[in-house]
Amino acid sequence: MQTTGTHIAYLHTCKRKLWLFANGIGMEHTSETVAEGKLIAETTYLDRARKYTELAIEGIKIDFYDAKNKVVHEVKKSDRVEEAHTAQVKYYLYILAKNGIDHLRAIVEYPKLKQREWVDWNDELLLIASKWEKDVQIIVNSESCPPVINARICKSCSYYELCYVDE
Ligand code: SF4
After folding, report:
1. Does position 144 have pLDDT exceeding 50, yes or no?
2. How many domains does the chain have?
3. Where in the numbering of this chain does the DUF83 domain appear (predicted)?
4. What does 21-58 look like in DSSP terms, one character per residue?
5. pTM for this structure?
6. Is the pLDDT of residue 129 over 70?
C-alpha cells in the first residue's frame, strides 16, 4: 500500500483510526465536511489557483505549491492546531526531497483560527519521515486493529460510534 499524507496524519492522531481507514472500514469524510473544506478553499483562497501549482507525487497531493518561494501550503479547516497536521506536511517535504525538490518550507494554514504554523526543512526529516512510513506499513498490515484510545478527540472522530457504541 502506498503511504499518503492522510496515513501519516492518522499515525499521529490515533493508530486505530489509521488501521480502520487503511483497511477500508467506514468513511472518514462525511459529505458535509468535504463541502465545508471545499467552501473554505473556494472563498478564502480564491486567487491561489492562479499563483500556485498543484502537485501530485508518490501518494501525496499538494493543492498549493508556491514554486517561486519554495513553499508548500496546506490548508486545514480545523479549529485546532494539531501535531498531526505538521507531521503531514513534514512528510510532504520528505517525499518532495526524495524526488529532487528539496529544502522547501511549508505552512499549515488555519483560516478559522486566522493562524499559520511554519515547518522548516531539516535533514533529520529524511530519517524521521522514513520511520513514519515504516510505522504506517506495520500498523496497517497488522492482523489486529489497535485498541481504542479513550481520548478527547474521539468525540469528534467519524469512527466514534464504531469504537464506542457498536462494540
Ligand atoms: S474514536 Fe477514538 S479510538 Fe476510535 S478511531 Fe477515532 S480517535 Fe481512534
Report:
1. yes
2. 1
3. 4-164
4. HHTT-S-S--HHHHHHHHHHHHHHTTTHHHHSEEEEET
5. 0.86
6. yes
Which amino acids bring their CB within 6 angstroms of ligand 1?
Answer: 14, 16-17, 20, 148-149, 151, 153-154, 157, 159-160, 163
Evaluate if residue 23 carries a pLDDT over 90. Answer: yes
Range of the domain at 71: 5-165
Encode pLDDT of 34-61 as tens digits.
555 555 555 555 566 667 888 899 989 9
CATH code, domain with 102: 3.90.320.10
Sheet holding 115-119, edge to edge: 53-57, 60-66, 71-75, 105-110, 115-119
Q: Which residue has the cell 501535531?
A: 83
- Nearest CA among 68, 57, 61, 59 for reference residue 104: 68
Burial of 87 (0-12, 13-18, 19+ CB in 10 A): buried
Largest separation between any pair of C-alpha atoms in the chain? 51
- Name the 3-class secondary structure at 152: helix
Which residue do the cell numbers 477500508 mark?
Answer: 24
Give the mutation target among 19, 27, 154 for probing the ligand 1 site: most ligand atoms within 8 A of CB: 154
